[in-house]
Amino acid sequence: MEQNPVISRLAPTPSGYLHLGNALNFLITWQFVRQHRGKLILRIDDGDSTRSRPQFVEDIFRTLEWLELDWDLGPSGPDDFYTNYSQNSHSEKYFAVIEHLERTYSCKCSRKIIRKTFGSTIYGGSCRDKMVPFVKGRTAKRVIVDRPVYDAGSAFDLARAMGDFVLWTRDDTPAYQLVSLVEDETHGVTHIFRGEDLHTSTLAQKYLAEELDFSQFLQAQVVHHELIYGPDGIKLTKSAGAASLRDIRESGKDKSYVIDLLCPYLDRFREKLLP
Ligand SMILES: [Zn+2]
Predict the structure, then answer these.
(1) 7-88+176-273, which class in CATH?
(2) Residues forming beta bridges with residue 7, ordered by sequence position
(3) For residue 9, which of 33, 227, 61 has the smallest C-alpha distance?
(4) Distance, CA 185 to ligand 1 centroid (Å)?
(5) pLDDT digits (tens, 9 = 90+) for 218-274
(6) Which residue has the higher pLDDT, 148 or 231?
(7) How many angstroms separate the alpha carbon of residue 30 from the centre of ligand 1?
(8) Residue ranges per domain, the chain?
(9) Glutamyl/glutaminyl-tRNA synthetase class Ib catalytic domain: which residues (predicted)?
(10) Could you tell me the distance, in angstroms and rounded to a whole number, from the CA of residue 121 to the centre of ligand 1?
């Protein structure tokens, strides 16, 4: 018996129709878990209620079925998801994690003010010493970032890359960094596969995991995979209107078409994983 069973997750966000980059992530994760006889969790990250839509939740299940990917834990379909799993209805659980975290503070700054004050979206910590009272729905909660985080042995200046990042938004929702981390920690996830665009996000979560003493997450192996670029060299994203898997599906193509397209990416990733 293997000492440390592999536990991983598919964690799409229902904020747009899934695209080829999501399929690559699902295939990489699914193949790794099945190869190691591990457990695969399906987790739909709908914590950001402002962007989540039912048709995108539906699309996640349709896509997984179409790609013939199964999972061991998590919602069986949209109804089960909304009844038992939606993060929207469990936001107090995430708040409880940070409620007593000492190195945090409330911030009343809007995005507009932040851009005006700091010339970018990276927050420079102007509310750090202001003792702003925390009011849900009116102030954000941020974590103090004042030390580097280590990435494969070298120090990474997270303060410069992200500033004091948000844990709880002014819209009274948990931030992605917090939700994703809490879920990975509580489910004992041992392996996380995510796109290269989430590298900084991974480091922010690592920082937060250190603040929270989340030992499971700190031991987890996080591997970033390539992003898929469109013919114009632009990263495929939902917001940029990349050809969705739904479009491909509805044009009558099947799983093998997607696998053929992604084959070079899957091969390169396998090589990366080799010791
Ligand atoms: Zn502020």
Answers:
(1) alpha beta
(2) 39
(3) 33
(4) 29
(5) 999 999 999 887 666 666 555 555 578 999 999 999 999 999 989 999 999 999 887
(6) 148
(7) 41
(8) 7-88+176-273, 94-168
(9) 6-116, 161-258
(10) 12
